[in-house]
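agent> fetching stored inputs for the flavin-adenine dinucleotide docking request
agent> found them:
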Amino acid sequence: MKTYDVIVIGGGPAGLAAAIAAKKEGARVLLIEREARLGGILKQCIHDGFGLIRFGEKLSGPEYVERFIDEFHQMDIECSTLTFVTNIVKQKGGFVLTAVNRQGVQEYRAASMVLATGCRERTAKQVKIHGTRPSGIFTAGAAQNFVNLMGQMPARKCVVLGSGDIGLIMARRLTLEGAKVLGVYEVKPTPSGLTRNLVQCLDDYDIPLYLSHTVTRVFGTERLEAVEIAQVDAKMTPIPGTEQTLACDTLILSVGLIPENEMAEKLDVVLDPRTKGPVCDNQFMTGVPGIFSCGNALHVNDLVDYVSESGELAGAAAAMYCRRIAGTAFYSSVPLRADASLQYLVPQKINVGPGASKAVLYFRSREILQNAVLNIAIDGKTVYEKKYRNLKPPEMERLELDFEPWNIGETSDICVNIRKEGVK
Ligand SMILES: Cc1cc2nc3c(=O)[nH]c(=O)nc-3n(C[C@H](O)[C@H](O)[C@H](O)COP(=O)(O)OP(=O)(O)OC[C@H]3O[C@@H](n4cnc5c(N)ncnc54)[C@H](O)[C@@H]3O)c2cc1C
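agent> prediction call returned; pasting tokens
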């Protein structure tokens, strides 16, 4: 059986960055990808706006990820494409991974694994729409794949449900390709996508956005013929009497992404109900020592620049883990408690010990807040505060902190909250 220090699962931006970082740390690395080509979902994201933070340039998805693919190949990292990981089992001193490819069933051993499997899209079933099941109902990512990779137009006249970024981007893309987009309908009273996408994808193309609205029913036998739209109340329940029927041949669903964590679940990795990704420490190690997570598998990111960053941190940490495992514990960690004012906070734990407590925190506020303060208290005493002029749930925030000066110990209670400035 072939043995490595680190196996990375997933060849998207997170997995590529993780493999490169692990190799730079001297690890023997294998990257496994189920598709024929590396690049993950960015292969189909041909619009621009990627890499502004990392490279200070406006790149398309393929341009962005190609920079990592080039570096990956220059470093001669081993890679197995068209290979689907089906199982990972913990064994003494590491893990055995089972994968299927054209050569049959393969097994590999490694001391640590990085899960960089990305996320999947929520479907119509998960948003419970009544009616028939005609063709013409696509997730935004599936429609993006048809248009951008296969050169097929899936729509002539369509409705977009959900104002997430991929839905906004697809509203513009389908318009550019000649389809009529009747509107983007969002069940919440506020949009889910980034402000820049609302402006560049909807306003610039006169595509209307209807907040507090949802699709309640679909009609059609072979192909979609119409959808029923209704206004919703504060509890997001459709208001009787507000229904209207819109004739259309396509419904695009942009109703959320869910981190892909089947492998983590098989390993009994504890998942965070807020992120749907693994609970991890500031090295992005999960609760199962030796298993690391990054990118959209860890939590749904809105900017790929942060996906690559988390991959680098996880890959380097996985390589360092291999150097330390000879019988010694890695680190011990304490929980980082985010109160209800945060939608979520990653990582959820901080390592205790010299040189171990530097952290990159990613968080989202629960509500839109102007003039807010992020507060970190250790055992009830404020140790850090940062002011934010504008916090919006769709826009993830990043914060780099070193917890070492605050002398955290294994019993420390670390609490993070956000409040309006001046409110105690
Ligand atoms: C449809 C869609 C469109 C998006 N558009 C944008 C955008 O415009 N801008 C933006 O910044 N972000 C966008 N995102 C977010 C985007 O996913 C992230 O920015 C980034 O691509 C996430 O990188 P990743 O490496 O974590 O995941 P991915 O890019 O999804 O890569 C994960 C990889 O893991 C592989 N994999 C999964 N399971 C297995 C397995 N069992 N065995 C082997 N391989 C496996 C997959 O094939 C895939 O290649 C989009 C996401 C989706 C789903």
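agent> quick read of the result: The chain is about 20% helix and 35% strand.
agent> awaiting further instructions
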